[in-house]
Structure formats: C-alpha cells, structure tokens
C-alpha cells in the first residue's frame, strides 16, 4: 500500500463535519470519493481531576479528538494520542500538564498510539503499525526523533500467520525495562466457542529492554487475557487485569453487563507470585499502582461504573475511560467518549490514498447506474432505506422500517430493520431485507422486499417462513435477485425470480452477504468454512465456477464490488491494534479495508486505523455529474 498524507482540510472543517453539496464533490485532482463506515466514538476528550473526582477540568487548552493521556514521571507533561490530523489518523502529541504547549512527537500515516515517556523523559515507548501494518512496540529518542523497533523484528516475533501484535507499553521506574501485553503465538479464535466471526483475544505479559535485548515472558494463563500491565513505583511488581479469553468479546459489548467478570492481579517479579486484589463479577480493567500498596482501576459498564481503589478509597462513579494516575498520587487523567452526535454523512476522513477523498457514510451503500446512492440509515436508530445523490442532495427516505411489526427497541439497537438495499438494473426498484438480524436470526425471521425509488409499491417477495436477507440484483436482469437464507434445515445462497417468485438453490452452507459484480459475471459472498474460518469467495450465477479469494486464517468478510469490478472487504489479517477489552460498542474493532482484483491478486490495504472500518464504496467523480442530471 502506498501511504499518503491527509488531504489538508482545516481543523475547523474536520470538527464541523461538513456535509451536503459544499463537500459533496471530490476535491480537485481526485478521482472521486471513497465512502466508508467507521465504528468509533465521535467524541473523545481528555480530563484531569483529583482522586476524589473534584477539580475536574478539560486537560487541553486546544482540544480536538484525543485519548490515552499519560502523565510523565516528573508531572510536567502529558503524552496523548490525537486525531487532529484527520478522523482515523492516530498520532502522538504531548502538552504541559496545564494543557498548553501542545507539540507533535510522532506524526505518520501509520497508526501511532499508547505513548508513554521514560522516567527521565528522554525516550518515548509507543505502539505503531509502521513497517508492516501490525501493532508493535517502538521506542523514539525524544531529542533526535530516532526510532527503534522492539517487537516484530527478526529476533522478536511470533509464529508467522498467527496473531502477533503488541500493546500497552509501560516503563519500569529505573527506565531499564518496558512491559507490555501481546497475543503472540495464540490462535485466531471466534467468540462463542470459536463460532463467531469476531475474534476473542488471549494475551500474555512480556518484558524487553529499550534497546531490544532480553525479551522474555513474565506471565501467562492459557485461556485467559492478561492486559494493561504497569510497574509498581518500587519496580518490584507488575499489576494487570485478568479475564477469560471469551470475556474479551463481551467486554466490548454493553449488553453483556454482568457476564464478563475480570479481576485485578499483580505479580512479584522476583518470585513470580500472583496476588488477586479484587473479587466479584464486575468488569475491571486498566489498573495502576497509585502507591506501592494501592491500585486504582476502572469498572467498565453497569450501574457501578467508575474509578475504584484496592485500598477501599471511595470510588468516583461515572463513565470515564483509560485512567492514568500522576506519579505524585494526587490526580488522575482520563477520557470521556461518546458515539453521539453521530458522524455525519460526508464527514472528511483521513485518506490513505491520495487519489481519493475519504468520507463517512452509513451502512450498506450501493450506487446505481444513474449515480444515486442507496443505503441503510442505521446510525439514526431506525434502519430505514434512504436514497440521495453522492453530494448529499435529494435525500429521501423511501422505506421506513417502522410500521411493519418490528420491535422498535431492537431496531434502535441495530438488531432489526431494513438491511442491505440494492438497486435494480433499470433503477426503478430497490430490493432489501426486512426483519431481524445477527443473533436475532436464531429465533426471529426476515424476508426479501422491494420498493419503487419514489417510495411506492412496497411488496414482500419471499414468504417469511425462512430467514431471508442481504439481497443483490443481477445488473443485467432487474427481476433476478440473489440472497441468503438461514434456518435449521437450509442455509446458503438462493436465486429469486421476482416475476414468478421461483427460488433456486445456488449454494448450500454458511454463506452470506452476496453481491453481484457490476458486469454480472460473478457473485461475491462470505463463507464460513468447516474450520470456522471466514473467507471471501466468488461464484458464477450458474453455480459452476467457485473461487476462493482470501485464504488467511483470520476472518475476512462483508465483501462488496467496486465500480470497476474489483473486490473490497473488511479483514483482520494484520491483527488487533489494541487490547480488545478496551473498545466500546464494536464488533471486530480492528477490521481494516482491503481491495484486490477480482481474482484476489494485487491486494492492498486502504485503511490503517485502530477502529473498525467497513462497507466501502468508490464513487468516481463522473458519477457526481451523472447523479446531478437526474431529478
């Protein structure tokens, strides 16, 4: 992948999230707009407060989108990650503890995150995806800006093809060691006993010297995740959170409150003795020694959410994230995040391809031959079908998911609604699935529907006795539809004749999310193989030619076609970018977008973030003019 710089939009433009015709057309010199969806908080700000919660103030005088604020040992500086250079672009900055004097430390098109200064302030340890797109530990000399890669090197890496990423570095008090968590030499493993597309995460703890010597393991527990390690002030112990590997799935899903217990643990480095400092069923993460005898930590989710202490100090309740206590034990820095207000349509995103302007869009987008977009408006909580020109004008809701007997609470949660709309070849109809999705499919149903582009003539095309969804229309035949069925008796892809309502079998098995190529020659889809690996396949409409596009042991899925008959998908080949349990309201938080030729060749990444990126669509500049002509 050719790394490029951000397209140069001002911070004011980024913050405003400009939408509509003012930002609709691709910038001069671009081929067009690359729309995509990102699951990440829309707001992230750093705060500092006393240990009892009093005196809270916003940390930075010039705040943008910041997280992972870590104070220096001398209490003079705060190192933090900021996306002020573009939505999705993680760079590392520092500022004075009073919030002034913001200056960049690490600025690059790679994901740079979780920075922490050495005790003497001369070196910075951080996580970066530079040099291979995997999260590794790096050290920078602050004065010279010279970089040293500590992990992912010839002498320090795990088994090729397996998870092999490194997270959350922390310095020993004497500056001689860096401790961190890693998933090296573990397996790609889905949630719910390996069945799920989204991966769980098993972590062990390792140490290394800042020059890359003496790499060794200090703690591991098979079937468990040991995360966010930190030294005690005297350097004799390391504290961390412990949870089952399965719990790393529920830890990023708020609906799993009370089902993902974790504990705060410390290990004595000299003897290897473990001490458990907590009990109970709450999700406890990101501990830190406030003193040699007291550990602060975060309880995530639930009515008791907030900052707690093993000493019995009164907790500070509230939704905060990523706490880091100052060395004097008097203050704590944390972040506050929110997914609301949502990222607006057309919000500029950081571009990793200088030929295209990257912008945000809601889910399941598809472009018609007349240049009009259709998509599911899921972010607003109604999952209805919307059409518009790619510049945002002409926006019209053509089908409301409400009023069709769906449970509105589950619609709001994104578990029900009108999903994956697809244009007919003649542009007269929009076909979609209406019903319940994801885990709900086990006990609910969904059917294939269509509606005219003016919102009239809505009709159900399948009888609803079998869970049917995710349709796509033959670009050469407006009445020929491919879709997915799921039941105890039948699974796979089906072809539907909208005129006769005749259904024929195309594939059998755990196949999903089919999409017809623009030239009509192939159908792309995601297949769950017998080894529980998810891969992207194509098949010809006659069922005679099946081709496997992705072959990596990690999960690849939600593949779609680009306008020029290439294939795009969300994949996890390059692994986690952070500890899984620290994320919010996300599924496969490290999914990056890949693009390849239709046979799988010339594969490249076109995003490099710490967030979940998916559902891309290229809109060439000429399509903006085409769409403008249609009223």
UniProtKB/TrEMBL annotation:
The keyword Nucleotidyltransferase does not apply. Belongs to the TolB family. The keyword Signal applies. Pfam families: PD40 (PF07676). This is PD40 domain-containing protein. PROSITE patterns: TAT. It comes from the Bacteria. Keywords: Signal.
């Amino acid at each position: 992948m050719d790394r490029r710089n951000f397209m140069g939009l001002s911070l004011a433009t980024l913050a405003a999230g400009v939408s509509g015709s003012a930002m609709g057309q691709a910038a001069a010199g671009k081929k067009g707009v690359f729309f995509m969806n990102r699951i990440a908080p829309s707001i992230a700000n750093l705060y500092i407060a006393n240990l009892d919660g009093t005196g809270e103030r916003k940390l930075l005088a010039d705040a943008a989108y910041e997280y992972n604020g870590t104070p220096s040992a001398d209490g003079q500086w705060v190192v933090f990650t900021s996306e002020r250079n573009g939505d999705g672009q993680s760079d590392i900055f520092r500022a004075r503890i009073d919030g002034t004097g913001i200056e960049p430390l690490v600025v690059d098109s790679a994901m740079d995150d979780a920075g922490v200064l050495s005790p003497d302030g001369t070196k910075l340890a951080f996580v970066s995806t530079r040099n291979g797109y995997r999260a590794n530990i790096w050290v920078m000399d602050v004065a010279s800006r010279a970089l040293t890669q500590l992990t992912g090197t010839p002498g320090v890496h795990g088994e090729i093809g397996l998870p092999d990423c490194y997270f959350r570095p922390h310095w020993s008090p004497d500056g001689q060691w860096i401790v961190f968590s890693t998933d090296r030499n573990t397996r790609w493993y889905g949630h719910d006993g390996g069945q799920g597309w989204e991966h769980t995460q098993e972590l062990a703890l390792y140490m290394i010297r800042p020059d890359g010597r003496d790499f060794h393991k200090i703690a591991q527990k098979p079937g468990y995740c040991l995360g966010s390690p930190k030294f005690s002030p005297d350097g004799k112990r390391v504290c961390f959170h412990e949870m089952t590997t399965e719990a790393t799935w529920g830890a990023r899903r708020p609906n799993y409150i009370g089902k993902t217990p974790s504990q705060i643990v410390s290990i004595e480095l000299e003897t290897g003795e473990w001490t458990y400092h907590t009990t109970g069923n709450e999700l406890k993460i990101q501990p830190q020694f406030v003193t040699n005898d007291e550990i602060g930590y975060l309880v995530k989710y639930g009515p008791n959410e907030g900052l707690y202490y093993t000493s019995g100090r009164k907790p500070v309740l509230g939704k905060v994230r990523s706490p880091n206590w100052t060395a004097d034990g008097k203050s704590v820095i944390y972040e506050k995040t929110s997914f609301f207000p949502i990222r607006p349509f057309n919000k500029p995103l950081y571009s990793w391809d200088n030929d295209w302007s990257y912008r945000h869009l809601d889910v399941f987008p598809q472009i018609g031959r007349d240049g009009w977009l259709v998509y599911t408006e899921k972010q607003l909580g109604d999952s209805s079908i919307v059409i518009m020109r790619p510049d945002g004008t002409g926006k019209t809701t053509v089908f409301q998911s409400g009023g069709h007997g769906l449970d509105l609470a589950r619609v709001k949660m994104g578990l029900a609604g009108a999903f994956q709309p697809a244009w007919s070849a003649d542009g007269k109809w929009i076909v979609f699935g209406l019903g319940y999705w994801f885990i709900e499919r086990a006990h609910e149903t969904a059917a294939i529907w269509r509606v005219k582009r003016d919102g009239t003539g809505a009709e159900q095309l399948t009888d609803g006795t079998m869970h049917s969804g995710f349709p796509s229309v033959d670009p050469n035949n407006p009445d020929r539809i491919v879709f997915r069925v799921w039941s105890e008796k039948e699974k796979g892809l089906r072809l539907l004749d909208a005129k006769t309502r005749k259904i024929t079998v195309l594939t059998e098995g755990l196949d999903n999310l089919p999409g017809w190529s623009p030239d009509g020659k192939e159908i792309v889809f995601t297949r769950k193989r017998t080894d529980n690996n998810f891969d992207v396949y194509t098949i010809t409409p006659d069922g005679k030619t099946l081709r496997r596009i992705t072959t990596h042991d990690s999960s690849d899925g939600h593949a779609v076609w680009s306008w020029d008959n290439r294939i795009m998908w969300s994949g996890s080949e390059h692994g986690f970018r952070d500890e899984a349990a620290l994320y919010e309201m996300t599924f496969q938080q490290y999914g990056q977008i890949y693009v390849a030729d239709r046979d799988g060749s010339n594969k490249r990444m076109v995003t490099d973030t710490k967030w979940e990126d998916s559902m891309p669509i290229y809109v060439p500049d000429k399509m903006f003019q085409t769409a403008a002509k249609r009223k």
